[in-house]
Amino acid sequence: xxxxxxxxxxxxxxxxxxxxxxxxxxxxxxxxxxxxxxxxxxxxxxxxxxxxxxxxxxxxxxxxxxxxxxxxxxxxxxxxxxxxxxxxxxxxxxxxxxxxxxxxxxxxxxxxxxxxxxxxxxxxxxxxxxxxxxxxxxxxxxxxxxxxxxxxxxxxxxxxxxxxxxxxxxxxxxxxxxxxxxxxxxxxxxxxxxxxxxxxxxxxxxxxxxxxxxxxxxxxxxxxxxxxxxxxxxxxxxxxxxxxxxxxxxxxxxxxxxxxxxxxxxxxxxxxxxxxx
Length: 277
Hints:
The protein is α/β, with parallel strands linked by helices and 277 residues long. Helix content is 35%, strand content 13%. The chain has helices at 7-16, 36-44, 73-87, 129-132, 136-151, 183-198, 217-227, 251-265; strands at 22-25, 29-30, 58-60, 63-66, 93-96, 116-118, 126-128, 159-161, 173-175, 204-205, 207-208, 234-235.
C-alpha cells in the first residue's frame, strides 16, 4: 500500500490513457495473523497441510506463506469470493504466477510431496501432494476464472497462468515461463507454443525478448516479428534488465512493433476467445 495507496484511482488513470490493468495473484498467502486473507482462510480451514496435520508454511515473495488447497470446493469458493472483491478495484484481468506451486529455499523448488490435500471425492479425495501437484495450477486458474465471473457475468474473464494441465484452456491463457534473452530461446519459443497448441492449450506465448538478460534491438525486433503470430503476445523482463517495451530499443524497433501489432490484430475477429481484449 506504500507504493499504491489508491488502487482504484490508479486503474482509473490507466484506463483514461488507454491501458488495461492485469494484476498478479500468487497462491502463497502471507503467514501473518491480522492479515485479512490469512485470517479468513484460517477460519475456513483451507490451507494445504503437512503430513502431521499442520498448515504447510513455505517461503515465497511475501516471506513465510501458507497455500490454499484448491482441491477442496470450499477453498475454491473462498478464493473466488476474494477475486470478486479484487476485481472491484477496476482490474481488467488476473495473472496467476508461482502456481506450480513454487517455494523458495528448497532443492525441488516446490512443496514436499508428502503434504496433504483434503480434496473433494470427485477429484480423488484426500491425497498427498504428489497426486495433485500437476493439477494445482489449473485448479487455481479455475478458481480465479470463477471469481471473475462472479464479479461480472457479462464479461469474459482474462486469466493468465504459468502452471497448467489438460483442461487449463477452459480458464486461462498460458505463457511459457521465465526464459532467457537469447536466440536459442527465441527458437525454442516457436516449438513450445506449437506443442502447447497440439496438447490442447491454444492460447500461449513466451516472454518476448526473454525474461532474464538483456535483449539486443535485433533480437527483440525479430522476436516481436515472430510474436505477432503467437496467440498470446507480450514483452516482459525481470528486475535490473532492459525494459522489454519497444521504445527501449530505438525508433526502428518501435516502428516495427507498430507494424507487428497491426498484423497481430488482423485475425482477432476469427478467434472464439480473444486474449487481447
